[in-house]
Amino acid sequence: MTSPLFRTRIKFCGMTRPGDVRLAGELGVDAVGFVFAEQSRRRVEPRQAAAMREALAPMVDAVALFMDNGKEEVQQVVGLVRPSLLQFHGDEDDAFCRAFGLPYLKAVAMGSDGPLDPLALHARYPAAAGFLLDAHAPGEGGGTGRAFDWSRVPGGMLKPFLVAGGLTPDNVHDAILATRPWGVDVSSGVEAAGEPAGVKDGARMRRFVEEVRRADCG
C-alpha cells in the first residue's frame, strides 16, 4: 500500500556558529535550536544566540532549549533571542512551560525501561504543542549521541512528536520508517569529528536532510 504524502520536519539543535545556522536554512531545515541548559556542552549565552539568529533564513524557526532554568533566565532569552518555540527538558510543569506566551515542546526521557502512556503525558502537559522523545534517561540532558528503542514509541500520540537521540545520516531513514514522527531532532549526529561540541559538519548536515527526504518518499 502506498503511504500518504508526508514531510518530516527537521530540527538541527545545539547550534554555536552563524555559518552553521545559515547552511541549515539553505538545506531546507525547519528549525534550529539554541541550548541554554546549564550543564550542556553546547550552551550559548543569550546575546550569542541573538547574534546567530540574524543568520536565520526566512521561515526557519528559532527554538530555545532549557532544562530547569529559572523563570528570569527564560524571560531574558525570550526577550533577546525572540524564539518562536520553547523546548523544556527538565522537571518543569505545564504551568511553568506555558507562562512565557510561546508554544512549547516537552522532552520525554525514553532512556528508562518503563512504558510511555500517551494519555497520562497529555494530561500532565495539556498546553504542550508537541513532545520530543529523546534517548536520555530521566534527569539527564539531551545531546548524548545515544539512540533509544524506536519500537517503544506508542501509538495514540494525540499531539505531534519528534524523535531525537543518536540520530545520524546513517540511521535517520530507518528511524522515520519505524516511528513516523512529525519531526526529527539532531545535534551530535551532524557534528564534525574532532571539533568542540556544537560545531557542525556541512556534509553530514546535507546528507542528513537527504536521508530524511528519502524516507519521506518511501
Automatic annotation (TrEMBL):
Pathway: Amino-acid biosynthesis; L-tryptophan biosynthesis; L-tryptophan from chorismate: step 3/5. Keywords: Amino-acid biosynthesis, Aromatic amino acid biosynthesis, Isomerase, Tryptophan biosynthesis. GO terms for molecular function: phosphoribosylanthranilate isomerase activity. It catalyses: N-(5-phospho-beta-D-ribosyl)anthranilate = 1-(2-carboxyphenylamino)-1-deoxy-D-ribulose 5-phosphate. It is an enzyme of class 5 (isomerase). GO terms for biological process: L-tryptophan biosynthetic process. Its EC number is 5.3.1.24. Pfam families: PRAI. Residues 11-210 form the N-(5'phosphoribosyl) anthranilate isomerase (PRAI) domain. CDD domains: PRAI. Belongs to the TrpF family. This is N-(5'-phosphoribosyl)anthranilate isomerase. The gene is trpF.
